[in-house]
Write a structure and sequence with these properties.
alpha/beta; about 45% helix; 13 strands
């Protein structure tokens, strides 16, 4: 077994044990189970990383790490300064210290207090999350409140018995790369299934995130030291793949991450994902709130312009349809006429009306597309997952957005993905690639709908792209290589003539095959067709006769 496989196996064991403890305390398949499992797993991860880091620091200066922790002197301050991005612990809050107090009859209170101190550690203010209204939520919250009073201590002790075991060798884990941590995160959130949903609601498949990130960065010159943004971030798969692609092999912190998502759960998952990947400097940019009504990231407040921050790269897999009728008019009143410094309205193509029936069918993704275009810097790039129906809609906001992208020469390309590429939706999806400095008259259209193979994902069936298929899509897009019935380059004028259709299939050449045959061969084939057709006619007449004969035998039964 490889080192990575061994680590993943130990992760499996820890998660399964934690779920088992929750189940035995009546928390199985409840929202509290998911919160406890992810909280304790992250506590274990950060603790082991803290201990690994302080031992490494102690070796570098020739001192025993216990001496540094015990003395609380300048050496400890130097450690915190050196590892500020990864440290949220005081010595008293480590697993090692708390294990000495497990025999206490109120051990659960000590554990809850430790979790609170980690979240409010003055040495690192990144370990809580800001919401759109300016309040902050702690990284960790007390867990004993989820169980009955008489079970609190037993619950806390059993958890500690699980996480104190030496199943994590993080001296190896911390030297692994982004892909490893992506697998840890995917495994972590796939291993719960609570009343409020499954992991697929918060997670863009790794293969799709990788394709989007590599194309977005590789399709033209890379923007260095980038500010990157996802206005519907979910658990962060898209934005972290982009951050990794923009960084060097050893360091992905050069990209500063900004996100917003309306879901408290998704925002918490995103914090975990950032922490696993060492992007603690961006934690304070993770905002929970309604992006459309209360966008969180501002540069300035100004009477004439929005003051909204603009970004180098934007990625988004927004919700496609949802009922936002309760905020629709407020969005229009607050933002309907707001423009940027160049005179572009934030919602230039309009805001969907509230349907009389099926309010849940409101096209909220259309609002996100407009917000993303509005939020791009003058040299910015974006990739947006959209329902494939958006590519060919003949009227409405969809048509207006496509017209704007073409008339302003912003569209770089479109990829239509296979059906069921997401485990939780059968909606066919495509990806729009936008570049504000697109200097060519070429748009790359790819139809990847025939790629992939069917796999089982829980109770659902989805389509999975192989690594080779992913590389094919990426290389074809970036190299602008045309391939029959798969990829084609078209001009903006061609798209205009096709009523702004972004569907690759409408531009593929229709080829009619011709076969050269002699007059004698033609007559022979024609004679054969005539004989076969005559035989079918006779067979039909016989069948008609049989039916009539059967009808004559029918009689009324009293």
């Amino acid at each position: 077994m490889t080192e990575i496989s061994s680590l993943e196996s130990r992760i499996d064991e820890i998660i399964n044990d934690l779920q088992g403890i929750c189940s035995q305390h009546g928390l199985a398949n409840q929202a509290s189970e998911e919160r406890i499992v992810t909280t304790i797993f992250l506590y274990k991860f950060l603790n082991d990383k803290f201990m690994h880091s302080i031992k490494e620091f102690a070796r570098s200066i020739g001192v025993d790490y216990k001496t540094i922790l015990a003395n609380q002197n300048d050496e400890l301050d130097a450690f915190y300064d050196t590892y500020s991005g990864n440290v949220a612990f005081g010595e008293e809050d480590t697993i090692e210290a708390l294990m000495q107090q497990v025999a206490d009859t109120k051990f659960y209170e000590k554990f809850d207090a430790a979790l609170d101190r980690i979240s409010t550690n003055p040495r690192n203010e990144n370990f809580n999350i800001e919401t759109a209204d300016g309040t902050r939520k702690k990284l960790f919250e007390a867990i004993s409140g989820e169980v009955e009073s008489q079970s609190k201590n037993n619950f806390a002790k059993r958890i500690f018995a699980t996480i104190a075991q030496e199943r994590f060798d993080f001296s190896g884990a911390f030297k692994n790369n982004f892909d490893f941590y992506s697998r840890i995160f995917e495994h972590l959130i796939k291993n719960y299934n609570v009343a409020s949903g499954t992991y697929a609601e918060y997670f863009t498949p790794q293969a799709i995130s990788k394709i989007i990130a590599e194309i977005l960065v590789g399709m033209s010159e890379k923007i260095q030291a980038s500010e990157i943004y996802d206005p519907s971030a979910g658990s962060g798969s898209l934005i972290l793949h982009l951050a990794n692609e923009l960084g060097s092999e050893d360091n992905i912190s050069r990209a500063i991450v900004y996100t917003q998502d309306i879901s408290n759960k998704s925002s918490r998952f995103l914090r975990i994902n950032l922490l696993l990947n060492g992007l603690t400097d961006s934690l304070h940019n993770v905002i929970q709130g309604d992006t459309l009504l209360h966008p969180a990231h501002y540069v300035i407040e100004h009477e004439q312009t929005s003051g909204l921050k603009k970004f180098d790269y934007i990625v988004s897999n927004p919700p496609f349809k949802t009922d936002f009728s309760s905020t629709r008019d407020e969005i229009e009143n607050n933002w309907g006429e707001v423009k940027d410094a160049n005179g572009l309205k934030r919602f230039f193509a309009g805001i969907p009306s509230v349907p009389k029936k099926k309010k849940e069918s409101m096209g909220i993704y259309l609002m996100f597309i407009q917000h993303i275009i509005f939020s791009l810097k003058e040299n910015g790039k974006a990739a947006i997952v959209v329902p494939t129906g958006f590519l060919t809609a003949q009227n409405g906001i969809e048509y207006t957005i496509r017209e704007y992208l073409i008339e302003n020469r912003l569209l770089k390309g479109v990829i239509s993905m296979p059906s069921n590429i997401f485990a939780n939706t059968g909606t066919n999806v495509s990806v729009l690639f936008i570049e504000k400095t697109n200097e060519t008259n070429e748009v790359m259209l790819i139809d990847a709908s025939k790629l992939g193979s069917k796999v089982k994902e829980g109770k659902n069936q989805k389509t999975a792209l192989s690594p080779e298929e992913g590389k094919l899509i990426i290389s074809t897009f970036i190299s602008k290589k045309e391939e029959k019935d798969f990829a084609i380059k078209v001009s903006f004028e061609q798209i205009e003539n096709k009523k702004y259709s972004f569907s690759a299939g409408q531009y593929f050449e229709i080829v009619i095959e011709h076969i050269d045959i002699t007059p004698e061969e033609f007559q022979s084939k024609l004679a054969t067709f005539e004989q076969e057709y005559s035989a079918l006619i006779e067979e039909g007449k016989e069948l008609d006769k049989q039916i009539l004969d059967q009808l004559k035998t029918l009689h009324l039964v009293n």
